[in-house]
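Before relying on records like the one below, remember that each one covers exactly one chain. Contacts with other chains, cofactors or solvent are not represented anywhere in the record.
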Amino acid sequence: MWSVVVPVKHSLWAKSRLKNAGDARPFLARAFALDTLESAAACELVREVIVVSDDEILISLLPLGIRVVSDPGAGLNAAIGRGIAASTSPARAALLGDLPALDPIDLCDALRAASAVERAVVADAEETGSTLVTAAPGVRWASAFGAGSLAAHRALGCVELALPRDSSLRRDVDTFDQLDTATSLGLGPRSSLLLDRRGVSREQPPALPLREPSP
């Protein structure tokens, strides 16, 4: 059983490459994170989900059972480290919080494969970044998320897991093209409802103020 740490940047500053979404951008960022967290919690191999964030609105909308750790404000890897330090399971994983199409089965498949190695990494669809990093019981935690993180994680000794290219675990969303692909896989309920209600697109931001979808 795994502890899964999900770092989530405050939505006011998240997803800057979706700036054409206008005022919808922070709502999208939170919806992506909430769908990711809910899917992670639904994976049968996950004992606990820990979100590292200082986004008060996000925290108020979290599904029951998800633990909250405050973000130390020193970057993504420091946030993950804070969450890892609070984890209770000897098998630990860090998962990005922008996987709105995440299927719990895909996460379970990856964690099951990761249990066979000391460290593992899942590449994003572009095969330059990482969406999941793991460490087996007794293995010191290390992560190197950021630009070119796949190569950096390999340098740390992570074994790249051979997941299908269309695995939902590889479909993080930073751009509208990536959002289109994630949408084709099937978005989580919050992200889907938000997009359906307001028609967010790269060409035209929503004309009306948004509200958070109900839990």
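The two ends are 27 Å apart (CA to CA).
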